[in-house]
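// run 5 | inverse folding | seed 20
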């Protein structure tokens, strides 16, 4: 090797070694004496001051508190505390165990007590009790309110977190505080694997017509395929109009809402989402509609109709494709992103707002509950009677023998 080239190589190696030495020294000094490192360099070597203080506090709790607390639990509690301070009932932190149960519920399977629920100021209101479920055996009925699980209140808790407290490993017990007609009782219910019937379909008659009724429990993964199949089956059985029952449906996946609305709409806008750190996205009808454009449709809603359910009901109402029957919906105008974390948990964080085809946001200011969707025909079921009065009103609206009433 020529002397000049060898000299340049030695200089380059010396420079690299010096740089590595400075980096190692900087990391060592930054870790032990961060104040001795200049500000711009300190953030690169030791992380931000805020991050350092958080780790310092966790270290002190772990080493000083009178009893041993696992570092993983401290981290879980710290993240949950940050999310709680947002004062956003729709945002929450899932521990690894809770996230696993959440993913199961999105795929319509979980271990729990076998009910569908809707948010209630006191906790969770039972909308349906599945046949053969632990809840059915325990005497829980539709209309009951779960106010606590294992002594932890469910009031004011994000719905996903509240339901996660009721769910749990198969074979374990959950102590439920249940309220009915103002009276409370405590039940010990053993959890087991439950497969949620996402779609129910039946053929009814009203206004001298056959009317297909399709009920959807949640917008879980693959729900659109079940809705399509139910609509086609009822169509073959002679259905001349349809009622799409979204009562008690707290929502789910936005993409499923797009696909399900597409069963009734041939084209055009369904929803627009906007957020501070996510690009604006407009979702339009896709594919071919399952139901012909001249077939009458009524969408049945109540205060438990929220999120993805409101996206579908709002799109069909704005596009003059369906008559909305029932009561005002929940009024959730925001959407969440689920972001997985390295510990196996996840943040379910509010990322933006959604808008119906006419530009309506159904929520209140920020993450507050809004006015929701105003029905075209107001109808309320009387739980003390055997007949479902709200469904009857929807059947008549779809069948064309009921005038629209002022809500």
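// decoded
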């Amino acid at each position: 090797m020529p002397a000049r080239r060898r000299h340049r190589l030695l200089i380059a190696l010396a420079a690299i070694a010096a740089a590595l030495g400075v980096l190692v020294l900087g990391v060592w000094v930054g870790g032990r004496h961060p104040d001795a490192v200049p500000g711009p360099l300190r953030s690169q070597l030791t992380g931000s001051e805020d991050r350092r203080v958080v780790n310092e506090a966790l270290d002190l709790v772990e080493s000083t508190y009178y009893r041993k607390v696992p570092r993983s639990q401290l981290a879980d509690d710290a993240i949950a505390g940050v999310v709680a301070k947002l004062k956003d009932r729709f945002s929450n932190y899932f521990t690894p165990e809770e996230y696993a149960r959440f993913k199961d519920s999105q795929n319509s399977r979980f271990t729990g007590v076998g009910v569908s629920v809707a948010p209630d100021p006191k906790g969770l209101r039972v909308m349906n009790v599945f046949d053969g479920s632990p809840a059915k055996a325990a005497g829980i009925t539709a209309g009951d309110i779960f106010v606590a699980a294992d002594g932890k209140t469910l009031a004011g808790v994000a719905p996903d977190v509240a339901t996660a407290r009721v769910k749990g490993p198969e074979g374990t017990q959950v102590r439920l505080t249940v309220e009915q007609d103002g009276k409370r009782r405590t039940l010990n219910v053993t959890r087991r694997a439950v497969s949620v019937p996402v779609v129910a379909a039946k053929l009814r008659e009203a206004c001298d017509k056959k009317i297909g009724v399709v009920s959807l429990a949640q917008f879980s993964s693959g729900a659109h395929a079940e809705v399509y199949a139910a609509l086609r089956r009822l169509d073959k059985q002679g259905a001349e109009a349809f009622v799409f029952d979204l009562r008690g449906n707290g929502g789910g996946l936005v993409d499923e809402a797009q696909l399900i609305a597409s069963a009734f709409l041939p084209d055009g806008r369904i929803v627009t989402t906007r957020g501070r750190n996510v690009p604006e996205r407009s979702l339009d009808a896709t594919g071919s509609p399952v139901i012909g454009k001249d077939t009458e449709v009524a969408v049945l809603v109540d205060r438990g109709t929220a999120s993805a359910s409101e996206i579908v009901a709002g799109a069909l109402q704005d596009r003059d494709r369906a008559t909305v029957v029932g009561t005002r919906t929940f009024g959730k105008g925001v959407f969440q992103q689920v972001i997985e974390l390295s510990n196996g948990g996840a943040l379910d964080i509010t990322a933006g707002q959604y808008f119906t085809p006419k530009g309506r946001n159904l929520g209140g200011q920020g993450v507050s509950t809004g006015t929701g969707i105003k029905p075209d025909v107001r109808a309320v079921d009387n739980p003390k009677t055997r007949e479902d009065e709200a469904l009857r009103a929807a059947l008549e609206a779809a069948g064309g023998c009921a005038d629209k009433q002022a809500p």
